[in-house]
Amino acid sequence: MRALNRLLLASLLAFAPVATFAADEPSAEPDITIRQEGDKTIQEYRVNGFLYAIKVTPKNGKPYFLVRADGDSNYIRSDNPDMLIPAWEIFSW
Questions:
Q1: pLDDT tens digit string along 29-43?
Q2: How do 50-58 and 40-47 pair as beta strands?
Q3: CB 43 within 8 A of CB 33
Q4: For residue 73, what is the enclosing H or E element?
Q5: Which one, out of 20, 26, 49, 82, has a CA that is 20 to 30 A from the CA of 75?
């Protein structure tokens, strides 16, 4: 009987760490942190602690997003592209 109890206890202790790792699964839902900075509302979007986008809502104006430009902490506005494409009309029928 003692051997059975020891075996049962050993098996419970062996599988306990596996259960804790399964609880730390990455989630697909972003964590949103909202804060006020002057007259702006800033929402930070994170997935597993990784900041991937920032939404800035001014008190008077349109909201805009800042997204990561590269691997560092450089962010650019998503509504203002770097490359401007000319829209000239050359021929008209």
A1: 889 999 999 999 999
A2: antiparallel
A3: yes
A4: none
A5: 26
Name the token pair of 14. Answer: 């062996």
Low-confidence residues in the chain, pLDDT < 50: none
* Eight-state DSSP code of residue 40: E
Calpha distance 74→72 (Å, rounded): 6
CB neighbour list of residue 41: distance below 8 Å, 6 or more residues apart: 34, 35, 56, 57
- Other residues' Cβ atoms within 10 Å of the Cβ of residue 7: 10
Specify the DSSP element, H or E, that contains 4.
helix 2-23
Look-up: residue for tokens 């592209």?
81
Q: How far apart are alpha carbons 68 and 47 in whole angstroms?
A: 14
